[in-house]
Design a protein that fits this description.
single chain, alpha/beta, Undecaprenyl pyrophosphate synthetase, 7 helices, 6 strands, disordered C terminus, binds farnesyl diphosphate
């Protein structure tokens, strides 16, 4: 079975999951964070090399202060608590996004967590925090211009190397849960050739079974893509 090297997930639906249970939205986000570790381990067992998760977009700063603070606390908990188990589980942590808007102590905590898992050799869990594709591409263009690059030196490879995902392979499978059918400014450049998979399942309910459904669909599509004698019907 063909396994994607890089899976990206838009973890949507935490709020609706909580509302359905008459719980505060924060409870949905908490459950969502628990899912991250479970899905990461399941991906690692299946041979996925990179798992990118959209945890906080550049637009999420516009949410009510209380919710933003709650999400920051959850990121902080992930750095403190979960990262220790990442070491045991041979998972590597990477952050894709800017940490500029986080206070200094928080930035140091993020860096310490990344450093702690640097030598691991298993799946890389890539948390997209304060991330937006347009922002990322704009920054890359700005960086290249500031470096005085000549127009003919601007290639796709050079642009890729200036993105926050530098060194990572392109996304092979992009999953969005929560029923919306859009990309929401997530890894647009990196997903140029990705298979897209949308599911109604809310992120706090997304587990191993849902992951396998997405991987099966990916394998089916890859097989079709590779076939020359399918009669051109797909
Ligand atoms: C969308 O749910 C979810 C997010 C804002 C991103 C995913 C966040 C988590 C899994 C928890 C935080 C994780 C970290 C590492 C900080 P929503 O609130 O938009 O749900 P809704 O569409 O049902 O309202």
């Amino acid at each position: 079975m063909s396994i994607p090297r890089h899976v990206a997930i838009v973890m949507d639906g935490n709020g609706r999951w909580a509302r359905a249970r008459r719980l505060p939205r924060a409870a949905g986000h908490e459950r969502g964070v628990e899912r991250i570790h479970e899905v990461a381990l399941a991906c690692a067992r299946r041979g996925v090399e990179y798992l990118s998760l959209y945890a906080f977009s550049t637009e999420n700063w516009n949410r009510p202060r209380r919710e933003v603070d709650g999400l920051l606390r959850l990121l902080s908990a992930l750095m403190d608590r979960d990262v220790k188990t990442y070491v045991q589980d041979n998972l590597r942590l990477r952050l894709v996004g800017t940490v500029e808007r986080l206070d200094r102590a928080f930035q140091e905590k993020v860096q310490a967590a990344i450093d702690l898992t640097r030598d691991n050799t298993g799946l890389t869990v890539c948390i997209a925090f304060d991330y937006g594709s347009r922002d990322e591409i704009t920054r890359a263009a700005r960086e290249l211009a500031a470096g005085g690059i000549r127009p003919e030196q601007v290639t796709e490879e050079v642009v890729s190397q200036h993105l926050l995902t530098a060194g990572m392979p392109d996304v092979d499978l992009l999953v969005r849960c929560g029923g919306e059918i859009r990309l929401s400014n997530f890894l647009l450049w990196q997903s140029a050739y990705a298979e897209l998979y949308f599911t109604e399942v809310l992120w706090p309910d997304f587990g191993e079974k849902e992951l396998d459904m997405a991987l099966d669909e990916f394998a089916r599509r890859s097989r079709r893509f590779g076939s020359l004698d399918s009669g051109g019907s797909s």
